[in-house]
Amino acid sequence: MSTPFFTQMAAARSGIVTEHMRQVLRDEKITEEALVAAVAEGRIVIPANREHKNLVAKGIGAGLSTKINVNLGVSEDCCHVEKEVEKVRRAVALKADAIMDLSTFGDTGAFRRKTVAICPVMIGTVPVYDAVARYGKEVGKITVDDFFEVVRLHAEDGVDFMTIHAGLTREAVTRLRKNPRLTHVVSRGGSLLLDWMEQNRAENPFYEHFDRLLEICRGYDVTLSLGDGLRPGSLCDATDAAQIQELIVLGELTKAAWQHDVQVMIEGPGHVPLNEVVTNMQLEKKLCHGAPFYVLGPIVTDVAPGYDHITSAIGGALAAASGADFLCYVTPAEHLRLPDEADMKEGIIAARIAAHAADIAKGIPGAINWDNKMSEARKNLDWPRMLELAIDPEKATAYRESSPPRDGEVCTMCGDLCAVKRSRNILEG
């Protein structure tokens, strides 16, 4: 276990139960044997960089509860580092399972290291963003060595998973040109690599030098989150040739990573009509050999700016019930501005609702127990217990206190006509 190339996948393949696996077992209703087998096969990942010293590990994948991720970080227009640090703390308090630092401006390294130091949940990044911020060069002048130096720095800093858009190949770009889209390329990382490839008339460096990427990931046990640079940015572009072409490549890269004991999850769409969500989940699981699926929404209608935490929760619930393992939250500020702390909370709660609803649908052991406890409290008109069990006790309490009823047993919507109180009195005496 002292070898620098020891990963969770390598341990599982040797039949070794790591401390991080034990942490997962304490949270999940899965046997030790099943967890070890799934990690060995790549159907479960445990993002756990050895340099992230205060991490409490979580598992993502088959048979486990659906996890949620929170995006944050500073930008050139909103460079308020302390506000983002406070959002990290608040996201953890609101029970986010992961934080992605998407900073694109300023001293990104200092912010990243501080986030790792204070954050007990897994942390992800997109190194290509940081390459632009770190070097201050035109995109086309960033070198291949520059890209990989940033990946190495993120690994050294303790980042647990990295989004790498390695499937956006020149062949995929050709497919994109032959099948024009309404919204082109909406992935920020994907567009940066597209720009670099076009300016240099070269292949995607992360695809061409994938072994170099795997060496870094293996050395620190960084989980690869293979990014969907060609994800659809509109319902019109969903499940098109470019998206599927990239997914095929990601499946090939997944098998290559597994040969080096590197853990992999796959990122997915995006904007997807409700009737295509299940198909997208099935395609990923088939083409990417059962690797955990990390979905960005999916957003199921394009016309609700200001409410995209709702559009994504609808898509996320169906996606997770159909096989997705990890939901990236979306806030009301999506498509409009950098989210503030209030936006972040709305996004987290919406994503947690979607994840929990999906866990019930896919039969995660014990998932429905929470709902049964709430129903018992409602039957008993036990208001303190109802508020305690609420997914957002703060908001539920504020609503309750804002409109006090004459009869403390009921609420002001029904008052004396409360069906629960009336039927309980009749049926239970």
Task: Describe this entry's structure for a reader.
α4 (81-93) runs parallel beside α15 and α6 (127-135) packs across α7 (144-157). The chain has 19 helices and ten strands. With 429 residues, it is α/β, with parallel strands linked by helices. The protein has helices spanning 8-13, 19-27, 32-41, 81-93, 108-118, 127-135, 144-157, 170-178, 188-200, 205-208, 210-220, 241-258, 277-287, 308-321, 341-361, 369-379, 383-389, 393-402, 419-428; strands spanning 44-45, 60-61, 67-72, 98-101, 122-125, 161-164, 223-226, 264-268, 293-296, 326-328. The strands form two sheets. It has an eight-stranded parallel β-barrel, surrounded by six helices. α4 links the parallel β3 and β4.
Summary of the model, kept short:
The protein has 429 residues and is of the alpha/beta class. It has helices at 8-13, 19-27, 32-41, 81-93, 108-118, 127-135, 144-157, 170-178, 188-200, 205-208, 210-220, 241-258, 277-287, 308-321, 341-361, 369-379, 383-389, 393-402, 419-428; strands spanning 44-45, 60-61, 67-72, 98-101, 122-125, 161-164, 223-226, 264-268, 293-296, 326-328. The longest helix is centred in the C-terminal third of the chain and has 21 residues, at 341-361.
- Strand order of the main beta sheet, please? 3-4-5-6-7-8-9-10
Helical/strand content category = alpha/beta
Order of helices and strands: HHHEEEHEHEHHEHHHHEHEHEHEHHHHH
The CATH H-level homologous superfamily of the largest domain: Radical SAM ThiC family, central domain
Uncertain runs: none
Which fold name fills CATH's third level, the topology of the largest domain?
TIM Barrel
Radius of gyration: 22 Å
Sheet with most strands: 8 strands, parallel, barrel
Count the E strands: 10
Helical percentage: 40-55%
Beta-strand percentage? 5-15%
Count of helix runs: 19
Provide the CATH architecture of the largest domain.
Answer: Alpha-Beta Barrel
The rough form would be described as globular
Alpha-carbon distance between the termini? 64 Å
Mean residue pLDDT = 95
Tally of domains: 2
User: For this structure, what is the CATH class of the largest domain?
Assistant: Alpha Beta
